[in-house]
Design brief:
591 residues; 17 helices; 7% strand
Length: 591
């Protein structure tokens, strides 16, 4: 992993990353804009041939195309440093898609589906112009990311959240796109809800990638690398998508299995009816031929069970109008058969078994029985077809769910390994940086101690001052005592304070560096001369958050300078006295 990371730091790869960071957001924004405008024009022109060419995937809804065009435009403006326009477009997309998502969640129709356009398409969907739930959610995240990245000034936190949202959008849309490419229908939508278009997924992948690359580039310019968070974010998003899609797939699989069980129940009831119909006919013929009471009981029991079986079939096939119609036809034909057999039994009582046998075996009786058998066969054949279809559908759902879990888990595992590698690389890099900082700090400490320099840090927000050990020694305070700005003000000799305060204010106003010399009075009453040099530390907004500086005790130097000045004055006086003496001697010699 370390070798791979070192390879990524090669000069050619650095130039490639620079090129990607500069042009990929522009390219991705252009793709989203062009794709959105293409479908906007297609809908406006009512050009069905354009949409027919897009039947490989689901066609993009008008509102979806409008939101994609806005996101693409916002991303292009973002690359052109037009942050205000980006924030407005992103905010509008986030609000619009948020209201659409609220419609999905609450079930209320707010009327925004047909606010801009009414689709001429006629489908069974009660809301044909409404965006798919997953599309709505991804566009809301993309709009929020654009709003965060476009706001001025762009803070590190907003850039980090914007990049992470872009990563989530890219992961979720990429999962949908892979579902289309590999034929995993459960990955292209949630259950019976409208599915995300493949073109929408492609545009959202581009938009998410563009936002991610732009935010990462801006973060690197500010000295923070968010790359280590992206694999983990993508992995978590992917696992959430897998969980949701797997739940939906398992729900569909359960429904398919319920339908299979239902078909088995219908076939079982039809088979039971055929057995009871056979008992009914056997008992009837036996009673007509022999007149035995046992045959009559078999006939009556078979007739009752056959009627019950038909009623059970009617209850089972209520969900299928065509099968319900066949079951009603079967019930009507069975009633005709029962009426015919009752007439035959009455005829036996009146004219004997031969007449009844002739009636039952005649053309009318045979036709009635044959019609009942044909009705049962038609109903059974249709249910067999439905069973095969439902079994195939259940197997398909199971296979797709298996593929989705395997493929998604493999991708999540790869992302987790990448996240682990990046985290390990980051930890090692931090350790090296901390070691280098420790060495530099130790060198600086040794240099400061050897030069008897004190280091201080003034927090402008809390007005608290942090001193090192040498500062406490210089000012004569106990080490570890909390120091406030006022403590330092009180220590400065009043005569020197105005000049020092003016230099300090000028340092903050100019946001630069400065120096000054002043005197302090220690708690024991001794006066020390100090030299101060300081600089400012700016926050993200460009305001001064800290003032950091050093103090050097120059009392001995000042004493030496005073002694030197006194000696110079003494030498000057001596030279003057010598000159006066020589002048007097010269004057006396002349006189």
């Amino acid at each position: 992993m370390a070798i791979w990371m070192a390879w990524l730091d090669a000069p050619l790869l650095r130039r490639l990353r620079t090129w990607i960071g500069r042009w990929i957001p522009t390219l991705c924004g252009g793709i989203s804009l062009v794709l959105g405008l293409f479908f906007l024009v297609a809908w406006r022109l009512h050009a069905p041939f354009l949409l027919q060419e897009a039947k490989v995937f689901w066609p993009i809804k008008y509102n979806t195309a409008l939101a994609l065009a806005c996101c693409g435009t916002g991303l292009l403006l973002l690359t052109l440093r037009r942050g205000r326009g980006t924030a407005w477009l992103g905010g509008l997309v986030a609000v619009f898609t948020g209201l659409t998502l609220l419609e999905h969640l609450s079930g209320y129709n707010l009327g925004i589906d047909r606010l801009f356009f009414v689709s001429p398409a006629h489908t069974g969907d009660p809301f044909p112009d409404r965006m798919a739930p997953l599309t709505t959610f991804c566009l809301m995240l993309a709009g929020t990311s654009l709003w965060l990245c476009g706001r001025h000034p762009a803070s590190r936190g907003r850039l980090a959240v914007g990049g992470i949202l872009g990563c989530i959008v890219m992961t979720m849309a990429g999962m949908e796109l892979l579902g289309y490419l590999f034929g995993i229908t459960s990955a292209t939508g949630f259950g019976l809800f409208t599915r995300m278009s493949g073109y929408t997924a492609a545009a959202l992948v581009c938009g998410g990638a563009g936002l991610l690359v732009w935010a990462g580039r801006e973060k690197r310019h500010r000295g923070i690398n968010i790359a280590r968070w992206l694999p983990m974010t993508g992995s978590v998003s992917l696992m959430v998508m897998i969980a949701l899609n797997a739940a939906m797939s398992l729900g569909q699989l359960q429904v398919s299995l319920e339908w299979r069980r239902h078909s088995h129940d219908v076939l079982s009831a039809a088979q039971k009816f055929q057995v009871d119909l056979l008992d009914f006919r056997r008992g009837m013929r036996g009673y007509i031929l022999t007149g035995k009471e046992e045959s009559l009981r078999i006939y009556e029991n078979g007739m009752r069970r056959a009627s019950d079986d038909v009623h059970e079939l009617l209850e089972l096939v209520k969900d299928n109008p065509r099968q319900e119609q066949r079951a009603h036809a079967l019930a009507d034909d069975l009633d005709k058969v029962l009426a015919n057999t009752r007439q035959a039994l009455d005829l036996r009582s009146a004219k004997g078994g031969s007449a009844a046998e002739e009636m039952v075996s005649g053309q009318i009786g045979f036709a009635l029985i044959s019609q009942v058998v044909a009705d049962v066969q038609i109903l059974t054949d249709e249910e067999q077809r439905l069973l095969v279809e439902r079994s195939t559908l259940a197997e398909t759902h199971f296979r797709h769910t298996t593929h989705l879990l395997i493929f998604g888990s493999a991708m999540a595992a790869v992302l987790l390994l990448l996240a682990h590698g990046l985290a390990d690389y980051e930890v090692n890099r931090r350790r090296r940086t901390e070691e280098e900082l420790r060495i530099l700090s130790e060198r600086f400490r040794l240099a400061a101690e050897s030069s008897e320099t004190g280091i201080w840090d003034l927090d402008m927000t809390t007005n608290r001052v942090a001193w090192d050990r040498r500062m406490y020694q210089i000012y004569g305070h106990t080490e570890g005592k909390p120091i406030a700005y006022q403590t330092w003000v009180e220590a400065v000799v009043p005569e020197d304070f105005p000049a020092v305060e003016a230099a300090f204010r000028r340092l903050i106003e100019d946001k630069g560096r400065g120096s000054a010399e002043f005197r302090i009075r220690r708690p024991d009453g001794t006066v020390r001369h100090l030299y101060m040099a300081a600089g400012v530390w700016l926050d993200e907004a460009g305001k001064v958050s800290h003032v950091v500086g050093v103090n050097l005790d120059i009392t001995e130097r000042k004493r030496m300078e005073a002694a030197l000045e006194e000696r110079n004055l003494a030498l000057v006086d001596a030279a003057a006295a010598k000159n006066r003496f020589l002048a007097n001697m010269s004057h006396e010699l002349r006189t």
